[in-house]
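Cross-check.
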Amino acid sequence: MIRKIVEFCLKNPPAVIMIAALAGGTGIWALKTTPVDAFPDISENQVIVSTQWAGRSPDDVQDQITYPLSVELQGIPGVKQVRGMSGFGFSRIYIVFEDNIDFYWARTRVLERLGGLGDLLPHDALPELGPDATPLGQIYWYTVEGPQDLGTLRTLQDYTIRYALQSIPGVSEVSSIGGFVMEYQVDVDPNLLFNYGLDIQQVNEAISSSNIDVGARTVEASGMEYIVRGTGFLKGIEDLEQVLVASRDGVPVLLGDISVISTGPGFRRGALADHNGEIAGGIVVMRKDANPVRVIDAVEARLAEIAPALPEGVTVTPYYDRRELVLETVETLSGVIAMEMLITLIVILIFLVHLRSSLIVTATLPYAVLLCFAAMKVLGISANIMSFAGIAIAIGTLVDMGIVVTENIHLSLARDSFKNTLVSIRDAVAEVAPAILTSLGTTVISFVPVFFLSGQSGRLFIPLAWTKTLVLTAAGIVAITIVPVLSLIFIAKEPGERKRLRTLLAVLGASALAAWTAWSLGPPSWLPLQRWLLSTLVFGGSAFLFWHLAGERLHTGKQERITRFITSIYEPVLRWCLTHRRTFLVMPVLIIFLGLVSVTGAKVFLSPLDSIGFNTDEFRLTALIKGAFPGIGSEFMPPLDEGSFLFMPSLLNQASLGKAVETMIAQNRMMVTVPEVDRVVGKAGRADSPLDPAPVGMIETVITLVPEDQWREGVTSADILNELRAATSMPGIAPSWLQPIETRIVMLQSGIRTNIGCEIHGSDYLEIERIALEIEKILVGIPGAADVSALRTGRRPYIEFSVDREAAARYGVSIELVQRTIAAAVGGIKSTTVLSGRERTDVRLRYARDFRNEISDLGRIFVRTMSGSMIPVSLVASIETVTGPAMIRSVNGELVGYVMLSADGRDEGGLVEEADEILRDIISLEASLSPEERTISLPDGYYFRWVGSYLNQMEAKKRFSLLIPICLAAIFGIMYMQFRTVAVPVIIFLGAVPLAIAGGFLFIQIWPFLQNHLYQAGIMASPSFGPIYLTVAVVVGFIALLGICVDDGVLMTTYINQLVKKEKPSSKSELRELVLIAGKRRIRPAVMTTVTTLIALIPVILVSGRGSELSRPMALPVFGGMLIEFMTMLIVPVAYSWWLERKFRGT
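Predicted model, tokenized:
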């Protein structure tokens, strides 16, 4: 089959070239149009339901909105989890769907369910869907600053800037934050109300009925039609003052007679400030699956468009721009890919000693990448750090197939000179095609476990698995179809063919380069003569280059010198290994043992000595061994350096917004003193968006840094973070230091602001808080546990009016009237809205501040009885101060609380395992004690579990432990299908896989030491920040290693089999000579493929730009494994020879 495909391609080069050009053009188009982002969209497939219920306590919101809605929404098909959050005046419900549920289908189902609620919710609580965006959609945060007051700036943001940005394609929402929303404030005097016999409800009705326009259809007169309308809209303060409230003895009582009317700031739950003070701003939220770079470009273009229309001095300045991170990340990895291609070309040229052949092999790299992008476009995969990383770690493997094909074509052309060129190339490709397809199959199959990951790990790494699989498949197709055709065209043997090719390439190449030069080089100010001279020089130089390139001959002698050099080392070593097999195999066994020790730590193997009384910590040698091999810890993912920090301190529940703003500004001023800090902008409370549920005591401060070349010498991001921690330390404030994207990833997982959380479930929030505080005391003492903080849900002060129903009945006052009067007098009531062009200004009515500022004043709120008299509310209700919850959280309708913590100087997996063991040991040991005597008292029905990134890690570990063995079995099956025997795959597996894995772990163990030395030598831009942990990224690297570490073994054993079948050896010595011949024949392509894989990974390992934190951990195990994999070229022939010699045991 393969032979026929190759022969068809060789007989139809024009058709193959045309199809290839069409596919390449499609790839170029896909490359330019594929959405680009820093991260794949790893957010949960969730729909947000937001409900505003102004002035209501978290208790009321939880009981009357969040709980009933949570229970109702759990019945939607495909729902995985429903998380609820009840705060002061609002409810947020996060409905998390299974990953296979379409996002917009889920929104439709939720909307249908909300439409059928009936009387389930209070009549004035209207749930609505959040924006069609993900939590990672907040891509552009900006400030609005100028000489105007905060109210004017907020009005500009709400009615000019926001409207302009909202219409941009790809923008889901533009939310406002900071400044003051202006309103008309009608502050009534209750004493005057009493004198006139009025209550606040009558005043409210009077205002509402005075702000109305009507339409009266049309009137026809003199042949013309007139539209009739009555205008009665309020225009401003003057109109409000003239509102008629009542009439006493024929004298009108106007609103201005009983109140003071002014404009002022409305009630707010959020503020924005930098180190100079408060400002206004906004957040642009990108629609799901939109292109962030294009959206931000459009946003900035629209801002530039409306800038002339803004008042003088008003500026709109971004303080968080996702585009910078996206472009820096893409630039880093695309630069790595380009460098890999260049290095690969040089390595191939050294081995092949033939420029045209080297270019043919190297050309498969960009072409395979273009085909990969075309497939990505079809599959809807965006270009991001993970998809680029998949291509980057595959570059070295991509050329392996082209190398094997081209190298065998060289040998075939040199060996079978009597054959026709087409036949020689066809036979050469057909000879190595089975090994290529087997290697491709094992590499692709090895990545199948990644496709079955779920949750965040799946959304993060599946794009990487797709791109690696697609680009390798494309490279395999190119190696079998296009490389033979290019070899036929560009490696012509006959002089006539070479002459024609020489002329053609010279003309085409020189013409193309000259045209490009004349069109693109030089500024417009250059004179035409200068351009002509430059073009002439380029034309002549390129003509000479292509003339020489087209006439280049195959120098088999030079290739043989390289081969002789390799075999001069390999042959005697292999001969010795075949003779001293047992001695040789001690070395790989020792390497495998050291790899095992590096994973588990030397402590595991030295523990028997401790059990017999030998203190290994005091003995110098054993202590040194334990220090050298501490073991490899685990965590979910290494953090990505985003180039900015997000500081999230939380104040006590009792703190007001004013106190939070004061604290935020003070901390901002401390942070700008750090030289590397460029700008600091903080948000206290929440923005006007369903995506932001933050309480007023939570601060989110974005710290952007100056470019790294402006940092102090020797300062790292970790040093800056430590300085910021020290500068912002304040008593009574729980800090949390993350990064903007990292924070959104963490919070969307479980609603907490740290990577690790202990989630406590129960039925009473006060009991949950008590348990959380007990757990907090224990976790603080665990080494490596940082920023430990129990989430305080209670202890917020409340003022409660408790209506005495008997007294209310005696005075003839309804409960509803009492409650409505309290709400209007103290909290205020929106009476109507004044329209002024596009602006909307609410009219808020309530008691004047002097009559509601003290708790003692609240008892003098007047309520109208059924008889029309006015009585103080203190006659029908008691007023007391109590404490209650500040925020109530729930999961699937069950109340939850959290203890938040992060790992500092140790791995997250080890920290959680130790913490869980300590907590459960304490609970188990104290089970016989009374609840009062226990350190942790868990009543019946209460339990805790660990959430956050650790949960993702455990989920990925569970799936990997099941799927990796299955895929290894599949790889084994592919090799069995080729060799039709069990022995060969077993030999290849045992000779390659354990050794490569051990090499990967050993390299991970020593990498921090190597990185520090490379940093000191000026090769790397930053030192090591600690050990490399076993993250999902590292596991993916090992999976990539599993797919390629058997390739050389397959290549070797395939040719050994071919020689054994052909020569039929009759003795051990003859068999060993055939093994030596096979080894010498295949050692050059094996060395070439391994060396190119290793050399291509060097840029991935050494680069220090944005995104390298994720790509490097994936490359390290592959590099270390392939370094040790050189031994496979000895182990597999030795072991296979040993197996084949069994039939000669008697000879």
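The mean pLDDT is 84. The two ends are 41 Å apart (CA to CA). Passed to J.P. for a second look.
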